[in-house]
Specification:
- By secondary structure, the chain is an alpha+beta fold.
- The protein has 3 domains: 32 residues, no CATH class; 69 residues, Immunoglobulin-like; 45 residues, no CATH class.
- Helices cover 28% and strands 38% of the residues.
- The protein starts with a helix and ends in an 11-residue tail after the last helix.
Length: 166
C-alpha cells in the first residue's frame, strides 16, 4: 500500500498535484537551460543550424556577432559582456531556433587582471605578459593598447592579413 492511499482523499489529490507540478518544473528548467549558450568574450563557438534557415537575427550586435558558414554552421563571437538572443528564421518567417546567448569572461588561464584602485588593466601572460586591452579596462589603458594595435596594423598595410602596398 502506497503512502498516498493512507492519506485522506483531499491530501492525496494535493500530493498528486504537487508531484506533477514538480515534474513539470524540472522538465521546463531543463528545456530553458538547453536554450542558453555561453560564449567567452573575444572567442568564437560553432552552432549547427536546423535545415531551412534563411535569416539570422542577433538581438544586440554589441554583445555577440554571428557569421553563417557553408554546411549550416554558424560562428558566434562574443563581443561584449551581457546577454542577447539569437533567432533563426525559415523562408516563411517562422522561428526555427531561439537561443539565449550569454557572453562572459574569457576562459583563458593566461589572463591576468591588475586592479590599481579603480583602474583596471588586463594582460595576457604566456609565458611573458603583454597588455591585452579588454572591455572593462580603464579607458586610457584600453585606448593606448588598441591604438598601438591599430597603428601596427596600419603600418602592415591596413589589413589584419598584412597585405601591404605592392
Amino acid at each position: 500500500m502506497s503512502i498516498w492511499r493512507r492519506l485522506p482523499r483531499p491530501f492525496r489529490y494535493l500530493g498528486y498535484a504537487v508531484t506533477i507540478v514538480c515534474m513539470l518544473g524540472f522538465a521546463l528548467a531543463n528545456v530553458a537551460r538547453a536554450d542558453n549558450m555561453t560564449i567567452p568574450l573575444d572567442q568564437a563557438q560553432l552552432l549547427r543550424l536546423p535545415n531551412g534557415v534563411s535569416t539570422i537575427v542577433i538581438g544586440n550586435p554589441l554583445i555577440a556577432d554571428a557569421s553563417l558558414q557553408p554546411g549550416g554552421l554558424l560562428v558566434i563571437t562574443g563581443k561584449g559582456y551581457g546577454s542577447t538572443n539569437l533567432l533563426a528564421l525559415d523562408r516563411s518567417g517562422r522561428v526555427v531556433l531561439d537561443k539565449q546567448l550569454v557572453v562572459g569572461k574569457p576562459r583563458t588561464s593566461d589572463v591576468v587582471i591588475v586592479q590599481k584602485g579603480i583602474e583596471t588593466e588586463t594582460y595576457s601572460c604566456n609565458p611573458d605578459c603583454a597588455p591585452r586591452g579588454t572591455l572593462g579596462d580603464t579607458p586610457n589603458f584600453f585606448n593606448a593598447v588598441t591604438g598601438q594595435g591599430a597603428a601596427r596594423a596600419g603600418q602592415a598595410g591596413g589589413s589584419p592579413g598584412g597585405g601591404g602596398p605592392r
